[in-house]
Queue: 3 jobs
Job 1
Amino acid sequence: MVYNIIVNDIIPIFVIMLLGYMGAKMHSFSPDQTQALNKVVLDIALPAALFASITRASREMLFSDLTLTIVSLVGVVALFMISFFLCWKLWKHNVQEAAVCALIAGSPTIGFLGFAVLDPIFGATTETGLVVAIVAIVVNAVTIPIGFYLLNVGAPEGSEMRSGSSLSAVINALKQPVVWSPLLAVAIVLCGFHLPEYLYPSFELIAKANSGVAVFAAGLALASVSFSIGFEILWNTFYRVLLSPFVIAIFGAICGITGDKLSMLVLACALPPAFSGIIISSRYQIYVRDGASSLAVSTLAFAFAAPFWIWFTPIVASWF
């Protein structure tokens, strides 16, 4: 199992990231080209990926297990906000840097690695799809809008993201395709609408570029700064792959989630940092060094954390 996770999920991330790193070091990409690449992902590929993945869910799926939905919503959002406040108050970053930190350390890359990790371990079952869909909706349709709102609130005077009030910050955030596309998708799902299948190939063609280009862009970003493994990077890694899933395991067990469903939820919340946070970091040049370094270290740590959580989650469940 560890071998499969490393070969199928971890190595490809490092290979693509290394290609981006080498491309930047060889001056194959100028800063303007890098920003254009980030803009394509953030404004087109990522919104398309989020919209397509969320609208494939159904209202019945969301309400079929309200406990799972509530635990995912409350747990993921709470951990996101805790990550934000710790980065802001403990590590003394500004609000924008703390927001990007939360988008990275406080959010799992469920859309890219969710099925790739869970299906081989638990099988491609309805329950697996339910866990991935619910966690993905929370991460993409709740934490990303919150993150963009905080980015607007913390923007300095004269910045393109600067807003004069909380309402203006909300409006500015809602103008971003990466914010309104998942919110629109959730609204469609909650209304019980089902998009015709012939629409999805158009979304998925550009959406397929999202994860690969995002990791490649992370390599480009890493080349522009000095890689570091300081205490904050280690904390972000600990928070992402160990502390967050532990909190979810406790919370889920207290709320009555058991068996494979709890193990899947915990493993989903232990995944490496969300690539959307890395793209936002690189696009706006905020928290770039720490964000890219946290992604690299957390991804490597996940290879060893995954089997631990599969073994340890039933033990946590037995406590309650």
Job 2
Amino acid sequence: MDFSELETLVARVPHLSVDEILAHPRLPEARRVYIERHLAVYDGDPFLTRLLIESGRFVVNKVALVLHAAQDLSRRETWLTMSRLKQEMAMFGLTSGRQIDHLVARLRAVGFLELVIPDGDRRLRLLSPTEKMLAHDRDWLLIYYKALARLRPQNDYRPALRRDRAFQVAQGRVALRLLPLSAKAFATLPEMMLFFNRAAGHMVITALLHAALSEPDHPHAPVPFAELAERFGVSRTHVRDLLVDAQSAGLVRLHGRGGQLVEILPRLRAGYDRSVATGLSLHDLVYAVTTGRLS
């Protein structure tokens, strides 16, 4: 699809838009579910956080999954090869072949991707997600569909909520068609990209927001840098540098000795909500197309 065709599809598929989600009275509930599910998947698992929670690693992981889901072994041009993966990664601004080679090698080393030799051409190598990678993807989808179920409990999100494998494949095929929308969405979230472009950055700010929202009358999130570093497998210096940069960008204000008390400023709260709403809207759109919910 070209972008005009995508826009036509979006216009005729009933789904929650970003603005509808931001104005939704149950957004605080959906945000809480989104944050708690993220922490349930990644908190206390530094290996998984370091492996995936950074923009380049995350995008390689997700693009590989949707390319595999949409693969038709009777059509060679659809095969998940390194060249095909690099071609699709370019729309996200990730054009370094060496970087993608490194990220794929890492995913292979930890058992998320494997090489497969197709019948009839032993010179070719296809990439294939392992069950370990697919199981994590189902956990990831659960983050979004549990939050969407809070916004629209009348909708039937059961295939996603029960981690159905057939649904996972079907939605992956649809998600491939909508990749240009996802790439465009990345560019609309500058506040969150400051965190997402750093290893574990998204989880650091998610943990701080969780602490702040748990004590709404307390202006500062008292989570020590050492605790964040241990939870997400990075150094205290990395966490401090990230938050100092966020303070320079007007997203947080650091207080107390060593800046250990973090005040989440309104611009970051708004940026986080828009990031949540964007992700939920895209997943609701994918779900609607996957299940045939067309106008």
Job 3
Amino acid sequence: MSRWTTLVDPAWFSADPRPADDVGLAVQWLGTAGFRVLSRGHHVWLDPHLSRHPLGELAFSKVSPRVDRVAAEVDVAHAVAVGHSHFDHALDAPAVARLHAARVYGSSDTLNWCRGYGVPEDQLVELRGEGESFVEGPFALRAVRSEHSPLFAGRVPLPGRIDRVLSGPAHYTRWRVGLTLGLHLQCAGGSVYHLGSANLVDAELAGVQADVLLCCTIGRQSVPEFTRRAVAALRPKFVVPCHWDPFWTPIDAPPRQIPSNDLAGFLSEVAACPNAPQVRVVPIRGWVVVKV
């Protein structure tokens, strides 16, 4: 078996049936760091990456959202929130916004891409991670200052900002990391914290708690004690690992890991935490219904 076909043990998977629209709180994994968060008929999409261009296109071509793929996956959307502006987090956000007239919550970097894609200004809400909070349907949405993990030779990939309007198609390297944020959503049914890169700023999480931690796993080995620190800070009841799948493969491809990822190691790290939360590894499109 080649290092590009690191299969995921099917025994790890556990998913609930798709809930009724009026559920108190549920989350659906979309692949990469993408999720849908649902409460009382309100759908918020986090870092949706549905285009999933193959490696050859990413390396040698300019890319833009594959609107047909986005439309096939996103049936209803009231808002999109983006944690940082790499292409595999931000690329499809403006397509969701334009298809469904949804608001986009993101840093100025993300919003400059949305502007270049033609999203109207009245649908754009800037996140700075300075304690601001927004009401989005049944949710209170708060952005928390965070960090991106240093993936390559101790460095964050594609550093820098998107400091002017970005129009596509463009090479994937045009989507710089920008400001990195954790996304905290609270509603009557519980709370969710989206950690789209495997790093954090401990001091920024003081006073933040989440029933569900949506946790990036790729790159965590480069951040000392990442898993323990994240679980200790947020005290979740459930952890849903994400960003372990190859984001350049079709969404319906057999489940496998990015070659450098170690999902089994992550599961062991969570289990070793004091008051260890339950881990739910879900397949792409799989749901977790939250009962707290």
